[in-house]
Amino acid sequence: MRIDIISVLPELMQSPFQTSILKRAMEKGLAEVHFHNVRDFATNKHRQIDDTPYGGGAGMVMMVEPLDLCISKLKAERNYDEIIYLTPDGTTLTQRIANRLSTFENLIFLCGHYKGIDQRVRDLHVTQEISIGDYVLTGGELAACVLADSVIRLLPGVLNDEQSALTDSFQDDLLSPPIFTRPEVYKGLGVPKVLLSGNFGAIEEWRHDEAVRITTERRPDLLENN
Ligand code: ADE
Fold first, then answer.
1. What is the distance in A from the centroid of ligand 1 to the CA of 131?
2. Which of 68, 161, 164, 210 is the most exposed place for a label (fewest CB within 10 A)?
3. Hey, whose CA ends up nearest to atom 9 of ligand 1?
4. Is residue 157 part of a domain?
């Protein structure tokens, strides 16, 4: 998979891709992430990429032309499955959306800044708008990192068996059951006996029951999806 991330602050997004699992995914050639600085596509001598909004109001708007030039250049080089604008106005990211995006070859993530982007960029190029939650970040960069992480870890070969994405919270619309490792007792707190029993049928049943209990307590809305 190839992800092209367009932003005014690409340096904000370096470290998540240079560490741990995402880094290994890139080294193994399973994912490529390319950053593009919008300022490199500015057309006037001040390298301007934002301007005041028509009609007035607070904040600056990212101009249509630099973004159009950047996206058009990428589109001329390859076919993109989705061009995604990260914005609080978008559809809230879910595991289902991450699963779907993980099946694609080429994605563009477009990070907004300031008040947002000129509507004509959305009309010309954007195929999907995604929010990572009902709160406002200073820009789309951190949201792009979250989205990239949620997608790249699903690519075949990125996680090993022990890290398998199939047992994640949300993968089956259930939150995860409690987990424990050594020691068996810590500050008087023990480990549920069933986990020490070696009875894998009973362990699976306990984990499922706990997942349902925790989901019922914390996120009953998830159970309605079943
Ligand atoms: N940009 C600013 N806030 C955002 C959010 N919650 N999700 C995605 N992009 C954003």
1. 5
2. 161
3. 87
4. no
Measured in Å, residue 7 CA sits from the centre of ligand 1 at 13
DSSP string, the chain: -EEEEEES-GGGGSGGGGSHHHHHHHHTTS-EEEEEEGGGG--STT---EEPPTT--SS-EE-HHHHHHHHHHHHHHS--SEEEEEEEEEEEP-HHHHHHHTT-SEEEEEE-BTT-B-HHHHHHT--EEEESSSS--SBSHHHHHHHHHHHHTTSTTTS-GGG-GGGSTTTTS-PPPP---S-S-BTTB---GGGGS--HHHHHHHHHHHHHHHHHHH-HHHHTT-
Domain count, the chain: 2
Give residue-wise pLDDT tens across range 104-133: 999 999 999 878 999 999 999 999 999 999
CATH number at residue 206: 1.10.1270.20
Ligand 1 binding pocket, CB closer than 6 Å: 86-88, 112, 131-133, 135-137, 140, 143
**Model-level pTM greater than 0.90?**
yes
Mean pLDDT of 46-59: 96
Atom 5 in ligand 1: residue holding the nearest Cα: 88
- What residue owns the CA closest to ligand 1's atom 4? 88
Question: How far, in Å, from the CA of 132 to the mean position of ligand 1?
Answer: 6
Which pLDDT tens digit goes with each residue over 169-207? 777 789 999 999 999 999 999 999 999 999 999 999 999
